[in-house]
Amino acid sequence: MARRENNNEAVQSEFDENVIAINRSAKVVKGGKNFSFGALVVVGDRKGRVGYGYGKANEVSDAIRKGGEAARRNLVAVPMNGQTLPHEIEVKFGGAKVLLRPASVGTGLIAGGAVRAILELAGVKDVLAKSLGAANAANVAKATFKAISMLSTRDQVFAKRGISIAPAVSEN
């Protein structure tokens, strides 16, 4: 059993975890109020893989743990061009709208809230981002992940179009 725990620790250490938002919900019952918690958690390895999850429980720590487990199950790869994104993208999810724009080396990660946490854990170093519309952390996170899933590298676009990459390399 000890070996199994060590394996879990090794898996968890590979990813960094960040809690974006904790929501408290109250159910009014005869004896008073019963509180429950929801935690929006992002995990990433800072090398191009990132995921998010939402965990609900009666205790904050349990909600964070469940969110982290859900995030590890929903990992996505972030296509990158060096330390930035391959192209500009604007995505809407619910009321939240996210704009991601690649930036030159040394610009840094200019983003706020959930977008910053997600891109930081993905390992993106230079990007300009703006969250427009609703400030709902869950919808902003979902919009960011939708944008990440819609990104494609130059090589992927050439492969889809059936163009060989050799001519493109000679131009550079």
Detail the topology: elements first, then pairings:
Blueprint: H1 2-14, E1 16-29, E2 32-44, E3 49-57, H2 60-73, E4 75-77, E5 89-93, E6 96-102, E7 109-110, H3 113-122, E8 127-133, H4 137-150, H5 154-161, H6 166-171
Parallel strand pairs: 7-8
Antiparallel strand pairs: 1-2, 2-3, 3-4, 5-6, 6-8
Helix pairs in contact: 3-4
Your description of this structure?
The radius of gyration is 19 Å and the shape is elongated. The strands form two sheets. It has a four-stranded antiparallel β-sheet with strand order 1-2-3-4. By secondary structure, the protein is of the alpha+beta class. It contains six helices and eight strands, in the order αβββαββββαβααα. It has two domains: 2-76, Double Stranded RNA Binding Domain; 78-159, Ribosomal Protein S5, domain 2, CATH 3.30.230. Helix content is 38%, strand content 35%. Residues 168-172 have low confidence and may be disordered.
The sequence of SSEs as H and E is HEEEHEEEEHEHHH
Shape: elongated
Strands in their spatial order, largest beta sheet: 1-2-3-4
Unreliable sequence segments: 168-172
Helicity, as a percent range: 25-40%
Let me know the largest β-sheet. Answer: 4 strands, antiparallel
Number of strands: 8
Q: What count of domains describes the coordinates?
A: 2
Alpha-carbon distance between the termini? 55 Å
Oligomer: single chain
Can you tag this structure with a few keywords?
elongated; alpha+beta; 8 strands; Double Stranded RNA Binding Domain; single chain; 4-stranded mixed β-sheet; 4-stranded antiparallel β-sheet; Ribosomal Protein S5, domain 2; 172 residues
